[in-house]
């Protein structure tokens, strides 16, 4: 089982860990830096596309304004404008026939091609001259119709003769349209000012429509000799569809397969048809594509979710005839950051190679360090165990491990010298201690012998004195017995007392016999004590106690002898 406390594990683990951390940090920083740079580059590219599209839309609007201004000032339009208003009068008897004739063609294209020559009316003859100019104008993409309005807002001419022909901007079908708003603007504008109404739903054409228009003026009939004043004859208007900007929005150079540009109005609705979307068209809210009005209003790079993944987008504001539009350039994040994904895979592979290589080098380097250290550890343990160490591994190396090995050699040599000195010192100390111990034992033995000999001498003297006293007692007893017999023969009258004395003498004899036995026993014990005096110090204590008892017996014998002498004296006296 591996232990983290060992260098054999910690060094490779540390090396691999540092390599992993280094690879992760460097790879992460590289990836983050590359991703940030690529994101910034993509945003710059999208910003460039949005700006270019904004310029394209501005050019398209400027061109449309120029074309409209040219048509409004065309001589045929200017000379026939008032006649068309006057000849399409609901009060005239041919009004209904004119409407029927011009609405008869089944399609807008057919009605545009119909010039009205066959109607044989004054309106038809004036219409022929204007219709030719209108057909040339409407041949351009995005130009949907040309309209003439009288001062009251009644539409007296349209090139396509749709449902708005002969209607009024105050009618329910038109009063909420951009045309009605444009009419109100033109009424308050200057005589040569061009007004614009942004895209909104319109009942003709099936698509949202924007309108650009201006007032048409004529000279008033005044008295001779006075300056002619200008009066407002009506208004000329051009209807524009989102197709005007389709060509500009379809320019997707540099946006890859998923990138596109979108035009969004201030109301959050698309002003053009998205090039890559078949389900969302102009006039739809931008939220149908996943773009919220708040993201557009922020005027900053943003991301949003779509059914096919996350998209990156930037926006750029562009003014369109006074209206504020926003151009949004967007691209799939997966495509935009495809290089980052490739870089991520490359960094991952490089990181793995670096990690594996570092791990292998770490293992090799750790073994090159750990194995010599392990050999030095074994050598140090051998020195600690007082084992013979002939050669220290690694002492020829030129690195730090070699320095450690040479230090171990020095420790070994010093240890050997110290061991030899310690051995000599220990042997000398042992010899001194042995000699001291012998002297001490000899002295103890001598003192013990002297002490025991003195005790034995005293005991022997006491025993001899006891033996002499016992002999004297025996002699006294024998003399007393003889005297007692003679006294018994001569003093019969005291036989009772002498019997008592005899009994006492008999008892005294038994006592003397016991004393003799104890004396013999004491002598044997003394002899045994002398024999064993050299082997047991404890026996001396017993001998001392026995000697004390013997002294007690001697004292007792002395007392008995004294009593016996007294009894004998008394007996003698009595005799």
UniProtKB/TrEMBL annotation:
Keyword tags: Membrane, Transducer, Transmembrane, Transmembrane helix
GO cellular component: membrane
Cell membrane in keyword set: no
Biological processes per GO annotation: signal transduction
Family per record: Belongs to the methyl-accepting chemotaxis (MCP) protein family.
The Methyl-accepting transducer domain, residue ranges: 462-575
Domain of life: Bacteria
PROSITE patterns with a match to the protein in the record: CHEMOTAXIS_TRANSDUC_2, HAMP
Domain HAMP span(s) in chain numbering: 367-421
Membrane-spanning residues: 346-364
Protein name (database record): Chemotaxis protein
High-level lineage: Bacteria, Pseudomonadati, Pseudomonadota, Alphaproteobacteria, Hyphomicrobiales
